[in-house]
Amino acid sequence: MDYSEIAERISRKFSQKNQTVDSKKIEGKLRRLVDEFGVLPSEAERSVTNELAKEFNIPALGTSSGSGPGSATEQKKIADAMPGDWVTLEGKVVSLSTPTSPTIAQSGIVADESGAIRFIVWAKSNAPAMTEGSWYRIESAVVDDYKGIPGIKVHSGTTIKELGTTDPLIPVPVQITDLHTGVGSVRAKVVQEWEPTHDRMLQSGLLGDETGTIKFVIWKEAGKERLEVGSVYSVFYALVDEYNGRLSLNLTTAKIMQEEGDIPTISGGEAAIRGAIVHIAPGSGIIKRCPVEGCNRALSRQNYCPIHEIQPNFVYDLRIKGWLDDGEKTHNLLLQREVVETLTGMTLDQAKEIAENNPLGMDEVFLRMRDILLGRYVLCRGREIENRLLVNSCERLTFDSGEHATLLNRAGGAS
Known about the structure:
Elements: H1 3-15, H2 23-36, H3 41-55, E1 86-97, E2 104-112, E3 115-122, E4 135-146, E5 149-154, E6 159-162, E7 182-194, E8 201-209, E9 212-219, E10 232-243, E11 246-250, E12 255-259, E13 270-280, E14 285-289, E15 304-305, E16 309-310, E17 315-325, E18 330-335, H4 337-344, H5 348-357, H6 362-373, E19 377-385, E20 388-396, H7 401-414
Helix pairs in contact: 1-2, 1-3, 2-3, 5-6
């Protein structure tokens, strides 16, 4: 791309207005917009021209590409902003989040009555800091697409002006089945809580309403709190991501309000899988959990909780983590206490007795349960999320030589 030609064209326009602009300076601005921020060359030319016109207090000069739909001067509703657009919009900053990089000055979500969209303010833009809860006019921002989620980028050519309005925004929650990538609001019940898979993760689990279920995650940030299993919440302005064809909610930037009442029917996601238990993972059997209210994390062998540190007054629990092979696919299993007791015939009290009096302690419980379950044919029912089956019930099946042969043939072919 010949940046020098565009820079000379812009420079000549200002020369005609008796203003001298260094073409090298113009070229640098163009390169930053196109190379770093992914702005289209025609829109970069428009942005630099408008920025310099404001600097010299000159009426807008326009560009060779003209104006019209998609131009920097076109004001849009947030719901109408599409990736590739160059827009001006007015909205309320409904949440701010911690920037993930020193190149980012601010990030968060801005909303109007039509919808909401995430935003990033680049540090190089030298834009004024925005305040959560205030309304702003954002001129000449570019809309991009990151991991399927539209967002606006504030760069050096963007103008931000605070508005005097104090108009309230009342987002309308939608049902889970009506969510799509971007920013969404729902009223849902915390159906399940999962163990965090990352040190920065505060909580993850499953939300549900009358139409279905969806995975959620909350990352550790100041002021963020865990949700209570069984409680109903109104969640406003959550990021809706998509991975492997499944939607999930990132509640870190969301506004969350606990509600009264209940959602009695949580439908969808029920699966019934027959197969053989081919692996019992470490961390199965009897485990210790953190006793701090609302935590319930599994402790290490030294009774250490990653959040609340050493917990000598732990509580015992039972669980099984393993693999169930149905002859075509291997499913990750997670069985909680009630299902474990039914399937193994060992109660929590019996497991505690073994753990506290046997020389092998908790390992003895693991070994006994492994011997009971490994290789057994079962029928498990529950919700399957991202190849993880969260088991609600599980029953043993009688031996089927045909299924056994199928599994052996599959194992032989894999080797």
